Amino acid sequence: MAWVKAAQDNAALPYIVIDKPAALLYLFAADGTLLGQTPVLLGIGIGDDSTPGVGAKKLEDIGPAERTTPAGRYVAKFGRAFGHERVLWVDYANSVAIHAVITTNKKEKRVQRLLSPSPDDNRISFGCVNVGTPFYTRKLSPLFKKTGGVVYILPDTKTLDEVFPRLRLLPYLDGAAQSEPAA
Description:
- By secondary structure, the chain is an alpha/beta fold.
- It has one domain: L,D-transpeptidase catalytic domain-like (Beta Barrel).
- Helix content is 23%, strand content 28%.
- It has helices at residues 2-7, 110-115, 133-144, 160-163, 166-179; strands spanning 15-19, 24-28, 34-43, 72-80, 86-91, 96-100, 123-125, 129-131, 149-153.
- It has an 8-stranded mixed β-barrel with strand order 1-2-3-8-6-5-4-9.
- Strand 1 and strand 2 form a beta hairpin.
- The two termini are 32 Å apart.
């Protein structure tokens, strides 16, 4: 995702890159400096799009195939999650946020899943991205608290070009910038 920095696609805001296949989150300062990485829990459903209307459903009405973490570029801001703690809203309309790992259902073993070396067991959420509490409170929250930032979620099944069409233009934009005559 070096193109984010090269194209200044993050609009001088801090940003996050979530690699869904690897179940990893990379946290970057606005200037592109990597500040940390951490494992994440993701939606149990494989796919790159939210089911239409999923954000308006009750949790118990959302089927496993609808529990996807959508791929794409999102401008994220902190806000309240329906009377709960503050979360970093990624896609408010579809109820997708980044928040500290939820541990209320012990059977799900979410903390253990985060700590396991394999990404194969990191699919458990309804679509939200869960991170370890220390990373969330010490690194992510302070960085995004005032201005928000940009979140890039890499796809499971689509190509990068499908999810981030600007990638196709970068060679042309770079070439145009290099071929401009000096003033």
